[in-house]
Amino acid sequence: GSNSVRAFPARTIGPGTYNVNETVPSPANPEQTQNTRYFIDQRGDIKLEGNAELRFDIVRFLKGAVFVDAGNIWLMRDDPMRPGGTFRKDLFLSELAVGTGAGLRFDFNFFLLRFDLAFPLRKPYLPPGERWVLDKIDLASPSWRSDNLILNIAIGYPF
Fold this sequence. Notes:
Elements (H helix, E strand, L loop, with lengths): L22 E3 L7 E3 L10 E12 L4 E13 L22 E11 L4 E11 L19 H7 L1 E6 L4
Antiparallel strand pairs: 1-2, 3-4, 4-5, 5-6, 6-7
């Protein structure tokens, strides 16, 4: 979300390689699909997150920023409802989500309003070998933009 890995909608990363937005055939009608979103608030037992942000002045109260965020959450125990969510010390680095973007900060000294536009570079829920999506970035494509660009509006700095 706006204070985490900003390239993904809030609570849609993890745990691990689990994809909360995955659709599966509907039990009632196999020709239709249904969303598997069982957990409105994705939770985990372990959280790893890192952010790097370069901020710069544009004019007196307007500042710019470019950033890279990485992170994920994991479970300590297996959960059959969230396959791939268990923490494994040999795999956790390959399960990190990575995103990047740019933003504007309206800094009035007593109040900071932040607009960040971000997109994913690495999607942990994709199959191994396909998680880095650098070769799929297409800012000119309206469908890519609607599927990948995330606008975060927040008050205060992200960290």
